[in-house]
Specification:
There is one protein chain. A hairpin with a 2-residue loop joins strand 1 and strand 2. The protein is of the alpha+beta class. The strands form three sheets. A two-stranded antiparallel ribbon has the order 1-2. The chain has a two-stranded antiparallel ribbon with strand order 3-4.
Length: about 170
């Protein structure tokens, strides 16, 4: 089951996850201890040290039942460098490229992708915006329409020329 579907099922938003992680993963001042004219600063270390600690983080509590991060997501201790930067309206985005296979119908593929997006939308967070960029099916449809118009115009012209040449 996908993370989006689990979040929707448990009614957990990305904001809930962000708030839980940011409020638990911080180091703050614990005050001072004065002993024999010496002041010592105290600090409370609350930063995560393992993926297991993050997995067991309580994200939300519904009806006295805690929802733990591992119930809705897979936590992996790792880091992957960005290979590209994608932005839309000045905000970072996740970019997904769909490439048509050779011999397959581009228009059918584009229509099926749009149907799948509409089916998935009710299960996605309400604040998630899905935008389609660089849709080649739009150009292909325009080219097909222009070709159809050209064929119709050509047939009409040939018919008129033949009609008037016989007279």
């Amino acid at each position: 089951m996908s993370t989006f579907l689990k979040c929707s099922l448990f009614q957990v938003s990305f904001g809930d996850i962000e708030n839980a992680v940011s409020s638990e993963n911080l180091t703050m001042s614990g005050g001072e201890i004065v002993s024999n004219d010496f002041k010592r600063a105290l600090r409370v270390v609350g930063q995560f040290t393992s993926a297991e600690q993050i997995q067991n983080l309580i994200v939300k509590s519904e009806n006295q039942r805690p929802i733990v991060l591992k119930d809705i997501a897979t936590v992996v201790d790792g880091y992957k460098d960005r290979s590209s930067y994608a932005r839309s309206d000045g905000l970072p985005v996740i970019s997904l490229d769909v490439i048509k296979r050779r011999g397959q119908n581009l228009l059918d593929a584009a229509d099926n992708i749009k149907k799948e997006i509409e089916i998935a939308k009710p299960n996605l967070p309400k604040d998630l915006k899905i935008s389609i960029f660089n849709d080649q099916s739009v150009n292909t449809r325009n080219e097909v329409n222009n070709l159809e118009n050209s064929i119709i115009s050509g047939v009409i012209l040939v018919t008129l020329i033949l009609l008037f040449s016989l007279v």
